[in-house]
Amino acid sequence: MTIKISIDCMGGDHGPSVTIPAAISFVNSEPGAELILVGMEDVIRAELKKHKADAHPRLSIVHASEQITMDDTLEVALRRKKDSSMRVAIELVKDAKAQASVSAGNTAALMAVSRYVLKTMAGVDRPAICSILPNQKDGPTYMLDLGANVDCEPHHLHQFAIMGSVLVAAMEGIARPTIGLLNVGTEDIKGNDVVKQTAKLLQADHERGALNFFGNVEGNDIFKGTTDIVVCDGFVGNVTLKAIEGMARFFKGVVFSEFKRNPLTMLGALIGRGALRAIAKRLNPSRYNGASLLGLRGLVIKSHGGADAYSYEWAIRRAFEAAKNDVQAHLSTMIAELMPRVPAQEEPSSTI
Amino acid sequence: MTIKISIDCMGGDHGPSVTIPAAISFVNSEPGAELILVGMEDVIRAELKKHKADAHPRLSIVHASEQITMDDTLEVALRRKKDSSMRVAIELVKDAKAQASVSAGNTAALMAVSRYVLKTMAGVDRPAICSILPNQKDGPTYMLDLGANVDCEPHHLHQFAIMGSVLVAAMEGIARPTIGLLNVGTEDIKGNDVVKQTAKLLQADHERGALNFFGNVEGNDIFKGTTDIVVCDGFVGNVTLKAIEGMARFFKGVVFSEFKRNPLTMLGALIGRGALRAIAKRLNPSRYNGASLLGLRGLVIKSHGGADAYSYEWAIRRAFEAAKNDVQAHLSTMIAELMPRVPAQEEPSSTI
C-alpha cells in the first residue's frame, strides 16, 4: 500500500530549493511513498523541471497561494493566511488525502495551525513536540516536550510519557521502552512538586505494567542513553535542546579552527580525514531531523527551519515511518487505555 | 596583604590526593595566598610530606575529625557530623580566619552547611550557585542558578541577576555586565509567568541605570556569549548544565574512538596532535572549575567532585580572585541598593 505524505514546500529558510530536491530523492528511494507537494504551483513545477522530475508518477502538486513566514504572528498564521502552504498541507491530512504532513515552517505557527485544523486527540490535553538525540549507545534518545508547553501540570507530563512511549514502540520496535523523568537528581526527593507528582503517576502505571518507568534521570542521561524516552516540560526541553545545539556548534567551530591553524594541523586533518568525516557523520544533526507533533488527530512532522535537502529528507522519512508504523492508531489505543480521567480540553497557556 | 583560603581537604571523589597537590601548586604560584588545610591532620601531613611541602610557611593545618560523604543526607551533614572538614572549613570563614573556602564535597550538603554556618546575606532570600561556561567569544558566560533553587519566584531570579552582575563586575572587571534571562524565545511574549514577571523587574532596573538587562536569551546564547550572565531557575540551570556536560563527554568519546579506529586515522591524530591538544585545552572544563555559592555571609566555592589536581587548583584560584576583588562587599552594597523590598527570610522549598 502506498503511503501519502503532504509536503509544505514553501516552509523553512530555503523553501522549494530544499524541499523539492529532498522530496524527489525520497520518493526515488522509497517505492511505497507518494508525495503531495503543496505551495505555489509555478514555483514547484519549475523546481521539479530543473531536476527533471516534473513527470514523476508519485509526485503531485496541490496549489496554495500563500506562505507563512518566520515573522508571521499566530494571528496571521491562523486567521489571515487561510491558503498558506502549511495549512493546505495539514488540511490534506485532515481530509485523509495524506497520512502525514511535513513542514520546516515556524514551530509556533505549525503547532497552532495543526491544532486548529486537526484538533487534539481524544484524551490528550496538550500536544507535545518530540525529537530524537544521539546517545553513547549509538541509538536515539527521544525527548519531549521541546517547547509546545512552557507550563505543565503533572497530568500533562504523564501524557507526554505515554505518547513518547507509544512513538518509540512504533518507530523503534521496542516493546516496552524505558521512560525517564528529567530532574535535578535521581532520588525520589529531588525536584519540584510537578516532577514529584508526575513520578507518582508514572510509578503507578509502571506497577500495573502499563508503562516502563525507569525513574528520574539527569541532563547527562540524555546522552548516556539511560532511557529510551526523556520527559520534561516544554520550557526545560526547549532551553536544553537549544543549549545542546549551541554547544555542538561551538565544539564544531573549535575543531575546525584548530585543524586549519597551520600546515601541520591541516596535514593531520588531511591524513585523518576518515576520522573527521566519521565524527561529522556520527554527530550530524541531519540524521535526527524531524520532530513529531504528538497528540493531534493526524501526523505532523516538523523539520528544522535551516535544514538542507539531505536533512529535510530525513524529516520526510520520519513522517513516512510514523505513518507506516501506524503511530496514530497506537496512540489512540494507548491513551484510551491509560488516561484515567480526562480533564476538560483547555487552551495552552503559551506556545513557542 | 595575604589572602587566606580554607580548603576542605577531605571533600570530593579523591580527597587529599587531589586537594593537597592542588593547594601546594597554587600557593607556590601565588605569593599573596595562604591556605588553611582542613581535615584529618595525619592524612594531610603525610600527603604534604610526600610532596615535600610539610614545612611550607603559607600552608597550615586545622584538624577536623569527620568527613561528609557523597551519600550523607542533609540531616547527617548538618546535625551529626559537626566536626566535618567541610563545616570546619566554612567556620573559618565565619570566624574571619579565612576570606573564602573551597570544597569539592556534595553540593547539597555544602549549600546547607554554608547557609547554616554563615547565614544568608541581608536582602537575599536564597543563595544561588553560579558557574562559568566557555563561549565562542573565548570569554566566560556566567550562569546561575545551577541547582540550589528548583522553584523560583520572580524576585528570586531578580536577586540572582543582581548577584551575577556583581560577581562578573568584580571578577572580570566589566563595569556594566550584560544580563540575559533564559527563555524559550527572545520576544517579550515568550515564556512562563515567572520569567515574564522577572523580565519586568529587570527592565525597571535597566531603565533607571542600575543593571544592564539585555532581555531574553535562548539556550544557544550561552555558547554564543550573547550576554555576560545568563539567569535561570535552579531546575533549568541544573538540567542544562548536566546536559551540556553529558554532550561534551559524548563528543569527546566520538572524537577519540574515531581517531583510534585505524593506523591512518591514528597517524592523522599524531600529525595533527597540536590541533587535538589545542581543542582539548579550549574545551577543557578544568579551566572553568569552581562554582560560587552566592548570597551567603562569606565566600564559598564549590569544585567539581571529580576534579583532578589541575582542575581543583582553578577552583582555589577562583576563591582567591573573588576574595581579592572583594566580591562580598560589592554584593552587600549592590543588594542594599537594588533590593526594593525584602520579603521575610524563607526556607527554600527544596535543594539539590
From TrEMBL, chains A, B:
EC number(s) per entry: 2.3.1.274
Keywords per UniProt: Acyltransferase, Cytoplasm, Lipid biosynthesis, Lipid metabolism, Phospholipid biosynthesis, Phospholipid metabolism, Transferase
Chemical reaction(s) catalysed: a fatty acyl-[ACP] + phosphate = an acyl phosphate + holo-[ACP]
Ranges in a coiled coil: none
Compartment(s) where it occurs, according to its Swiss-Prot or TrEMBL record: Cytoplasm
NCBIfam families: plsX (TIGR00182)
Family: Belongs to the PlsX family.
Function: Catalyzes the reversible formation of acyl-phosphate (acyl-PO(4)) from acyl-[acyl-carrier-protein] (acyl-ACP). This enzyme utilizes acyl-ACP as fatty acyl donor, but not acyl-CoA.
Protein name stated in the entry: Phosphate acyltransferase
Species for this entry: Janthinobacterium fluminis
